[in-house]
Amino acid sequence: MKFSLSVKKNNIEGLLLLFPVILIFISEILHFTHPQIGVAIKFLAIFSMLSITLLKNKYNIHSLWIFTLLIPILIYHFFISFSYRAAIEELIRYLFPVVILFYSYTLKNRFKLLFNFFLVFFIVNIIAQIVNYILWQKGIKLWYFDLHENGVYTIPSVYGIMRATGVMGFFSLFGFFCLIMFFLIETYYKGKLKGLLMILSLAGLFASISYKGIVTFVILIFILSKKKLQIISGFILLILIFIFSFPKKALDFYEGAILRTELYISEGNSARSESYRVMVNHTGLLGEGLGSFGGPASIDHDSPFYNEVNFNWYGLELGTTDTYFPHLFVEIGLVGALLYLLFLLSPLLRRRVSIQALRILGIVYFALFFDAAFSYSLNNTGYLMVAIIWVFPIIYYSQQNEKS
Questions:
Q1: More confident residue, 336 or 9
Q2: Residue-averaged pLDDT of the chain
Q3: Which of 90, 229, 346, 398 could serve as a FRET partner for 79 with CA atoms 20 to 30 Å apart?
Q4: Picking from 6-20, 87-101, 190-204, which range would have the lowest pLDDT averaged per residue?
Q5: Rounded average pLDDT over 36-51
Q6: Is the pLDDT of residue 4 over 60?
Q7: What phi-psi label fits residue 329: left (phi over 0), alpha (psi between -120 and 50 degrees) or beta?
């Protein structure tokens, strides 16, 4: 009887701990169907994480000390902002990773609970995507399609191929999720379905046609694998099969890759590359203030900083500059930005982090930071929940395995 009550109590506690995680993913779905409700649920999730963290009253000492040093810097840049409304909005976004990292510490001994939930959620996403493809082929409008004023729906696609989104609605987040799940399954799943699950995660990543996610995967596999020649040969073989099977599509993808390379790297005719120009030329020890550059608050509240630096949007109307690091370094300066990034990496400052944990955490951080170089993933609660939430559970799970 006591054992039964103990198991029941443990299950209830586990469900309560997962409640904020579930809310974040629900908010991502509602972002497409009921945006205002989605935002409300997102903040409920953040409030739930903060409440659980405060009730547990247990913190990683390194994270806590660095955040203590970071607080006065954020306060200073709040008060020098051109607009307090913009500063408030941006301050909240700066705190998203902080709350989720502290919440990760409350889950430090619940790795299996988190892994099993994510595994089930991954399978749900794969099944949902198969259904999405079937409905799309039948010409049925899906819930995450955008409706324009002319009454035409926009499908997330590349050269006529619909990008995979699962239940998340956003192809890039789905691709990032599949990327992280591939390495988590490779490292921690011990069941008979390991090979199948790894194949499905790869299929999800490539079906999302998320260029950032695919490039990240190729880089990581090349760095981490001992069979580099086989991997290169395998990729070349797959490319050749694709070229000969779908020559028109292959040409389209090639031209698209060349265009993106010119746009973001060789010629730099984009808001992203312009952001890095501003970052290099206008990053000081202290920044311009919260909400001044790069983020949605700077656009919504018409930050004067864009005119001061002659920012070139190249004719595009965007909600952000679509890259995170210039926003971070320009708004809170070199000192604040480096301290903020050090806070995100603070779990690695522990004395004992196993080789296995360092490997998987290196993958998680690299994937998140690489994506943030071309997007706002470090401000996106969906990306943070897929990545940062794992940090402390992975560290402590590896330590437990070493002891046993």
A1: 336
A2: 87
A3: 346
A4: 6-20
A5: 95
A6: no
A7: alpha
pLDDT digits (tens, 9 = 90+) for 182-217: 999 999 999 889 989 998 999 899 889 888 898 899
The residue type at 60: N
Contact between 156 and 171 (Cβ < 8 Å): yes
Stated pTM of the model: 0.89
Question: What distance in Å separates the CA atoms of residue 57 and residue 55, rounded to the nearest whole number?
Answer: 5
- Over residues 268-286, mean pLDDT: 86
| HEC letters along the chain | CHHHHHHHHHHHHHHHHHHHHHHHHHHHHHHHHCHHHHHHHHHHHHHHHHHHHHHHCCCCHHHHHHHHHHHHHHHHHHHCCCCHHHHHHHHHHHHHHHHHHHHHHHCCCCHHHHHHHHHHHHHHHHHHHHHHHHHHHCCCCCCCCEECCCCCEECCEECCEECCCCCCCCHHHHHHHHHHHHHHHHHHCCCCCHHHHHHHHHHHHHHHCCHHHHHHHHHHHHHHCCCHHHHHHHHHHHHHHHHHHCHHHHHHHHHHHHHHHHHHHHCCCCHHHHHHHHHHHHCCCCCCCCCCCCCHHHHHCCCCHHHHCCCCCCCCCCCCCCCHHHHHHHHHHHHHHHHHHHHHHHHHHCCCCCHHHHHHHHHHHHHHHHHHCCCCHHHCHHHHHHHHHHHHHHHHHHHHHHHC
